[in-house]
Each structure stands twice: as C-alpha cells, then as structure tokens.
Amino acid sequence: MSIEFLIAAIVTVVGLATPILLAGLGELVTEKSGVLNLGVEGMMLIGAIAGFAATVATGNPWLGVIAAAAGGALASLIFGFFVLTLNSNQVATGLALTIFGTGLSSLLGLGYTGRIVAQFASPFPVELAKHPIGQLVFGHSPVVYFSILMVVLVAWFLKSTRAGLILRAVGENDLSAHSIGYSVIGVRYAAVAFGGAMAGIGGAYFSLVITPMWAEKMTAGRGWIALALVVFAGWRAGRLLAGAYFFGILMALELYAKASGFSILPSQFWAAMPYIMTVVVLAIISSRETGGGNAPACLGRPFLPAN
Q1: N or C: which end of the chain has fewer CB within 10 A?
Q2: CATH number at residue 190
Q3: Residue 159 falls within a domain, yes or no?
Q4: Per residue in 21-40, pLDDT tens?
Q5: Domain of 59?
Q6: CA-based nearest residue to 65, from 233, 207, 245, 230
Q7: What is the C-alpha separation between 51 and 66, in angstroms, rounded?
C-alpha cells in the first residue's frame, strides 16, 4: 500500500464523515436540551436543496451554505412549534418532519436535476495540496475545517460556558431550571434551531461538495446514522468526531469495493454496513445496564411546569 493511496483514502474518509459529523453535532446540542428530533434526515434534505438552489442563483457556494443553514433551521422551528408550544409527541413529529423534508426537497428540486454548481475555493494556496502530506492537511473542502472547528466550539460551549451549563441544566431537570428563572422553552427553541442549521449544512455538503449536483434523496439515510452517532458518542462532542470517522471508514469501504472490483463480499454488503453497524451499536448500548446513563434525563419528555 503506497503512501499516496493511504492519504487519498484518509481524505475520502474525512469527506464522507463530514455531513454526519455536522448533523450529529446539531442533534447532540438539541438532545442536550432535552428534545429528541428524529427529523434529521428531512432537515438535511431541505438544507441540500436550499443550498443547491441558492448556489445556482448566486454562483456563490458560501451563500448556499447560509441558505442551507436557514432552511434547516426553519424546518426545525416548525418541529419546535409542534413539540415545544403544542406539546405534540416528539418521536411522531420528528418522523413526520423526515417525511415532509423528503417530499418537499423532491418537489423543490424538480427544476435542478442534473445541474452542477460552482465549487468552493480552497482556503489555502493550491501548491500546498500538491504534495501527498500537504493533501492530507490542506486538501479538504472548507466545510471540513468548519466541521472540526464546530466540534471544538460545541465541546467548549457545553463544558465551559454559562450558556452551555444552562442548556445542560434544562436537559437534565427542566422543572428546576424553570424554578430558578430560566426559560426552558426559549433554550430548547434555540437548541432546536441550531440543530436544524447544522443538519442543513450537512445536507448541503452532499449537493455542493460530494456530488456536486442535485438528486432526489441524495443523503441516502445519513441522517439516521447521525442520530445513532449521538448515542454512540455518549452525548460527547469529542467522541462524536471519532465515531463519525469510524462510520466514514465503513462508507469508504463500499467505494473501494466498487472501484477495485476485488472484494470477498459484494459491494452491496459494504453499502449496507454503516446501517447495519447503526443497528448493532444501538442494540449493544440499549442492552447494557448503563447504556443510557449519559442521556439527558429529560430527553424526549415535554415540559409541563407546575401551575
């Protein structure tokens, strides 16, 4: 195995892991506030078409990313209105959001099928990425560096800031947080909007970087992997990064099997492996006595203040 092949493989893994890392970070913050949003897949698809359409219209992929974040946040706030204001069931509403996002993205994307968009310019001089080692450090999309920066910022926010402490308090004991004057609903709305924005950016990574073109259901279930990734990481941002790259390796194996034409197992098996591992990880964690020990205590429960 040559060093060039190894570096190219690592770059591929990082690229494949980035969208689920972004969506997973958003869902982690949402769940830390006590809200379970199963609509990640729908928000990613809305972000994918919003980012693609904005990039086609403006020719600027950065405006596409902003549009994707706005689209994902708007979709999440619709979810938030139902579960936070109307106290609807979070699981059912999240599933409805996935169905809604899938259908809406397909409808909005009818006029964009097969079109291509402008690429991101490298934030570093092109010469730096020509050497194999330079490619490993400087050969990624700017969104990849953004995702890693967000891991650091989310970890710092949750652990070292007053706002992060309030968010975690709301997720652990909403009634106590309410009794000392914090707006539980306000905090959860903010967390839900952040989760939607991150999912939207993760979806835009598919339509602006990985392809880059529009196709229906292009996220291919990655939103469900992002949901499992939060549990896999024990609701910790650092572990989320490692888990995303682990799933990135599984997804890269499919590409290698198809490209090389040599594999003991068919490429369809490797295509299914990330989803098989998602089920396995969730089953293992749920079967352990301490499996949900790191989950926020109020996760999935509606906020019902005492009169």
Answers
A1: C
A2: 1.10.3470
A3: yes
A4: 999 999 999 999 999 999 99
A5: 3-287
A6: 207
A7: 7
